[in-house]
Predict the 3D structure of the following.
Amino acid sequence: MTDYRVSKGEAQEDQVTAAMEKVIAQLPSSVFLGAALASMAVSMGLHLGGKKHESLFIGQWAAPFLLLGVYNKLVKQHGSDAAKARESESEYSV
């Protein structure tokens, strides 16, 4: 059986991803949590106002906001690319 797993440091992110992560990492995680809670509140308001389709549309935004918050937290804790971090550490330790 062939092993298709990617080993740590085997694949690297491109510069576009790194640039986006650098900007997004400046946002506190509470922004994403607030956006998720706000989308749920707006969804509930629309539902109570009788706008069922709009309510469902806005209510589905909560999960992506929470996922973006988790991604943001992971980038802050582990950096954007572990292989690049190891290379720069080895350059400075010489």
